[in-house]
Amino acid sequence: MDPSGGCPHADNARLLARGAVAPVVLPGGIEGMAVLGHEALREFLQHPDVAKNARHFTALREGRVGPGWPLLTFATVQGMTTADGDDHRRLRSLVSRAFTPRRVDGLRPRVEELTDSLLDGLARAAEAGGGIADLRKHFALPLPMGVICELLGVAAEFRDRLHHLSNQVVATDIGPEEAVAANRELVAVLAEVAAVRAAHPGDDLTSALIAARDEDGDRLSEQELIGTLVLMIIAGHETTLNLITNAVRALCGHRDQLDLVRSGGATWADVAEETLRWDAPVSYFPFRYPVRDLALDGTLIPAGTAVLAGYSAAGRDPQAHGPDAGRFDVTRPARADAVRHLSLGHGAHYCLGAPLARLETTIALERLFTRFPALDIAEPEDRLARHSSFVGNSVRALPVRLGG
Question: Which end of the chain is more exposed for a tag (fewer CB within 10 A), N or C?
Fold first, then answer.
């Protein structure tokens, strides 16, 4: 895997042409596998012989993965994404109440208010920048970060630092010393957040988690509390940040599709779903481990292998999405024979925040293009700098002209 990231789609197509499962080399020369094909990934994500707990990770157990390994947090953080069975159900149940459809829909007025405020700020940034502003920095980032931090009760002064540190955690080209320092600081910042909420509890998820820990220590350990906050901060804003950014890029690059939505031929929800499929915000997500040797689509994955879920590849798999899988088409979700994408996961570990990500994205897109109907990208697509990661899939900045 190229630790510097970049656009994954050409490599994905080349690998998919050879098979649905591919051996890969992870940073540090660690042998791994990637599941790329839609049907193979669907089977793998819900397979009873596949675990998330790193005690099954052979290279880690044998001491071949050092403390500065850039993907270590994905393997060892204590929380929902690294738990199995009863532990996973226990941890997920503690958080799930904040993400019920009713609770999420109750956030709509606040998301709309924050969106409108950020659009004002985007206009000011463009005026100060000679007509050009970074949409990612001024809009796509602060919207999901603001919402998840409000849900968690994280004060505004922590938010920029948390974004920087979460970027460091998901980077795959980071050096060992930087990786260790970023992880330690992220844990320290969130421990400080937890301490503030413990001293001054409020109507937020962190306070509720602390109360659960204090009422019954068996329900949530201190490490699980901090691990849950780490996961919520990273997943709660990075995925939606990339989704909004990628959707704007897709619409600006396919004006006919934007016109179709404006004319009522498709919805903003259709745009979100097609972006999730066509340009998944997470390209390769670490890790799952077969607990015994596993044959998948004719390929043997040895027990204990670290396996990446290839969401961006599965989204353009022509075996599942047809010969035009590489085409951005917002009417695709309405087709009777359409195959639902897997970009938000599948099975027991399906993304808990999916309803919130969809709400934020549809509100953001509708209000952005209503406010600035002539908005367009100010740089050619091939000149936009990509993430330094094969986990996150997007660009580092999105300079736009607001037009009109």
Answer: C
Domain regions of the chain by residue span: 9-401
CA distance 240 to 315: 17
Q: 64-88: per-residue pLDDT in tens?
A: 998 889 999 999 998 899 999 999 9
Tell me the one-letter amino acid at 205: L
d(CA 266, CA 271): 8
Cβ-based neighbour number of residue 257 at 10 Å: 22
CATH of domain 9-401: 1.10.630.10
* Mean predicted lDDT score pLDDT of the chain: 92
| Strand residues in 135-283 grouped as ranges (E) | none
Distances (CA, A) of 101 to 106, 215, 352: 8, 27, 11
- DSSP string of 105-164, one letter each residue: HTTHHHHHHHHHHHHHHHHHHHHHTTTEEEHIIIIITHHHHHHHHHHHT--GGGHHHHHH
Query: Residues 6 or more apart from 399 whose CB is under 8 A from it?
Result: 132, 133, 134, 135, 377, 378, 379
Identity of the residue numbered 75: A
Q: Rounded to 10 degrees, what is the CA torsion of 112, 113, 117, 122?
A: -10
Contact indicator for 258, 369 with CB cutoff of 8 Å: yes
Digit-coded pLDDT (tens) for 310-338: 999 999 999 999 999 999 999 987 665 55
Q: Which tens digit of pLDDT belongs to each residue from 97-117? A: 778 888 888 899 999 999 999
> Tell me, what's the pLDDT at 323?
94
